[in-house]
From TrEMBL:
<dbReference type="Pfam" id="PF03221">
    <property type="entry name" value="HTH_Tnp_Tc5"/>
</dbReference>
<feature type="region of interest" description="Disordered">
    <location>
        <begin position="454"/>
        <end position="528"/>
    </location>
</feature>
<dbReference type="InterPro" id="IPR036397">
    <property type="entry name" value="RNaseH_sf"/>
</dbReference>
<dbReference type="InterPro" id="IPR004875">
    <property type="entry name" value="DDE_SF_endonuclease_dom"/>
</dbReference>
<feature type="compositionally biased region" description="Basic residues">
    <location>
        <begin position="491"/>
        <end position="502"/>
    </location>
</feature>
<feature type="compositionally biased region" description="Basic and acidic residues">
    <location>
        <begin position="473"/>
        <end position="490"/>
    </location>
</feature>
<protein>
    <recommendedName>
        <fullName>HTH CENPB-type domain-containing protein</fullName>
    </recommendedName>
</protein>
<feature type="domain" description="HTH CENPB-type">
    <location>
        <begin position="48"/>
        <end position="126"/>
    </location>
</feature>
<dbReference type="InterPro" id="IPR006600">
    <property type="entry name" value="HTH_CenpB_DNA-bd_dom"/>
</dbReference>
<dbReference type="GO" id="GO:0003677">
    <property type="term" value="F:DNA binding"/>
</dbReference>
<dbReference type="GO" id="GO:0005634">
    <property type="term" value="C:nucleus"/>
</dbReference>
<dbReference type="InterPro" id="IPR050863">
    <property type="entry name" value="CenT-Element_Derived"/>
</dbReference>
<keyword id="KW-0238">DNA-binding</keyword>
<dbReference type="Pfam" id="PF03184">
    <property type="entry name" value="DDE_1"/>
</dbReference>
Length: 637
């Protein structure tokens, strides 16, 4: 601008020519030329006054920027509306003059926000990924250090562990028949663009991958949603792929034993050639059969802390992202080659083979182990910024009197005490604010960072999961005891259900306890088995008459009980209304809501039963008939 003004005044150049030569606006140049002509002996300030309407200084905005970035690292980032409200509250707390629109709307304007983002290039509006609370709070110093302690202890046991040649990682991922479509070229301005998929939700095929710290791979394992596995299901998969079947398509404890055998086959694991296998602590991986098999073949099983696989598992960190991208691209390519043909589980193996070859590269695998700090071993691979996400739930250990036990703490600690502890942080922030009234009140002093409230004392003795070497004897014995306890509870639950099933003879009992007891005792008395001695049961054989009850035999020794409605003239054919056996007691019978009437011959009638009696005292119980005979050894329906 100075050169342009000099060209106009000293060199007598026209405004437009000088503006074009120096790449400035000629209107602005004309204004500065007039100012210079009015004050020829003074130096004119030719820099625009951008700070004329600024609300905060550079230092103040810098503190706001740091606060916003820190909140985003803690997974509690501020939206554009939150930042505008924070800017208004910050200005009011520091007695900064703000426009009238700020006071009317109780927040900063959109123009200020846009200019604020432009002034600070390290801030941008981003779409965050969802992070569960469990995953956000689990990745902390304690659990991560426990994992690296176990890893270091294991690596010191064998030289082949420390050099990475026998260190492996195993994990499953979902490969469905419906792909996530990639971006496509389409007409601009159209609101909705679609791309063909094979279905709405698709079928699940679990793919289990195994990688080595030196960049090698083991053929994958695929679990198909079928009852029985067929060889053609893995056509096109990588060579050596193990195919398994489960109706749900998920990995189970029984199938994981086959996976360990597959791992032993391809790695030649033995007591003389031990291997380290790192995996998550899912229940399907921790069966006793699996641990025993691994221990017999020299496999050390090391589990990751719960909800930390996104940071500590090499497959999740560097491999599965590219694997999913190549897998989706392979399905897109298959759909283009087969228009109008649905993509089923029988084509999944082919696409897995394409994605496996492209994603399981040595560079990808090595970078995953390195980024997790597993190989090369580095327990300090994560910085303090990585643990900010769990700092929200960092709580101080409550200080109590030495004379007060845990039981007294849980009994005497009231809600008021907990509220006092929770408000302690707010009081500290307020005290800091009062001390700094002479200076600028920062956003941290004004609002503070997100912090969870103190947790109430709980007497729940449930043991939380953590990283373990499950093949070590103490951990193995603990898992065995846990499995025995689970089996004991399951058997006890089944026995209780069986007792309830036999004690409740009817679906709906609306009688009191006394009637129920008499009903059960009467129903179970004077029973005898009609098949114990057929010769002694001839008294029940005879000619059936109208309204008599008979036992009718069908094919393959299947019996029904029916009531004779009509006897035809030749007495060789009868019209029968059949009953149904009770669901709770096989010796009680009831007529169905819709009568089941049929004609049979006298050859089908095996017994003429005695006259039944009604059981119970209510109208519903009177519908059930008892013949005083035990049908336990007959297939009566």
């Amino acid at each position: 601008m100075k050169n342009a003004v000099k060209d106009v005044i000293s060199n007598h150049m026209s405004l437009r020519e000088a503006a074009e030569r120096n790449d400035v606006k000629f209107q602005t140049l004309a204004r500065y030329v007039n100012k210079q002509k009015k004050s020829p002996n003074e130096s004119i300030h030719m820099k625009p006054k951008y700070d004329t309407r600024r609300i905060f200084t550079d230092e103040q905005e810098s503190s706001l920027v740091n606060y916003v970035l820190q909140c985003s690292k803690m997974c509690y980032g501020k939206s554009t509306k939150d930042v505008r409200i924070l800017a208004y509250e910050l200005a009011i707390a520091n007695n900064v003059n703000v426009p009238k629109s700020w006071k009317d709307n109780k927040k900063a304007g959109v123009d200020w926000l846009n200019a604020f983002i432009k002034r600070h290039s390290n801030i941008s509006i981003r779409q965050p990924e969802g992070c569960s609370l469990s995953r956000a709070t689990s990745f902390n110093h304690h659990k991560v250090n426990a994992f690296f302690d176990n890893l270091e202890r294991v690596m010191q046991r064998c030289d082949s562990f420390s050099d990475g040649s026998r260190v492996y990682n195993i994990d499953e991922t979902a490969t469905t028949t419906v792909q996530r479509s990639n971006k496509i070229l389409a007409q601009k301005g159209v609101k909705q663009i679609s791309k063909c998929t094979s279905g709405e939700r698709g079928s699940l095929v679990t793919t289990c991958c195994i990688i080595n710290a030196l960049g090698n791979t083991v053929p994958p394992v695929m679990v198909f949603p079928r009852t029985h596995f067929k060889t053609h299901m893995i056509q096109g998969a990588p060579a050596g792929t193990l195919g398994l079947a489960n109706p749900s398509g998920w990995m189970t404890s029984e199938l994981f034993v086959d996976v360990i055998q597959h791992f032993i086959k391809h790695t030649s694991s033995s007591v003389d050639r031990p291997t380290l296998l790192i995996m998550d602590n899912h229940e399907s991986h921790l069966s006793i059969d699996c641990i025993n098999l691994a221990k017999e073949h020299g496999i050390t099983l090391l589990t990751l802390p719960p909800h930390c696989s996104n940071r500590l598992q090499p497959l999740d960190v560097s491999v599965y992202a590219s694997f999913k991208a190549f897998y989706n691209a392979a399905i897109d390519s298959w759909m283009l080659r087969h228009p109008g043909v649905p993509f089923t589980i029988y084509q999944v193996a082919e696409c897995v083979g394409v994605a496996f070859e492209k994603s399981m590269t040595p560079a990808n695998i090595k970078s995953g182990f390195k980024k997790c700090g597993i190989y090369p071993f580095d327990r300090n691979i994560f910085t303090e910024d990585d643990f900010l996400i769990s700092s929200v739930t960092d709580r101080q250990v409550p200080t109590t009197s030495t004379n007060m036990g845990h039981e007294e703490i849980g009994r005497d600690k009231t809600d008021e005490m907990i509220e006092d502890e929770f408000s302690c942080q707010k009081e500290q922030n307020l005290h800091t604010t009062k001390e700094n009234n002479s200076g600028f009140i920062s956003p941290e002093q004004l609002l503070g960072y997100p912090k969870a409230a103190p947790r109430k004392f709980s007497q729940n003795n449930r043991r939380k999961k953590s990283s373990k070497i499950v093949t070590d004897t103490p951990e193995k014995l603990a898992l065995e005891e846990k499995q025995k306890e689970r089996e004991r509870k399951s058997s006890l639950k089944k026995s209780k259900a069986t007792k309830r099933q036999f004690s409740k003879l009817l679906e709906d009992t609306d009688t009191d306890e006394e009637n129920a007891e008499s009903f059960v005792s009467d129903a179970s008395s004077d029973k005898w088995d009609p098949l114990e001695d057929l010769e002694n049961q001839q008294e029940f054989l005879g000619r059936p008459d109208t309204d008599s009850y008979v036992l009718v035999k069908f094919n393959k020794n299947v019996f029904y009980i029916g009531k004779v409605l009509e006897v035809f003239k030749d007495e060789k054919e009868f019209e029968i209304s059949f009953l149904r056996r009770g669901e709770k007691n096989i010796n009680f019978f009831v007529f169905p809501n819709r009568p089941d009437i049929s004609s049979i011959t006298d050859d089908d009638i095996k017994y003429v039963l005695p006259t039944p009696r009604s059981v119970g005292a209510t109208k519903r119980q009177n519908r059930f008939l008892d013949f005083g005979i035990s049908f336990d050894n007959l297939d009566v329906r």
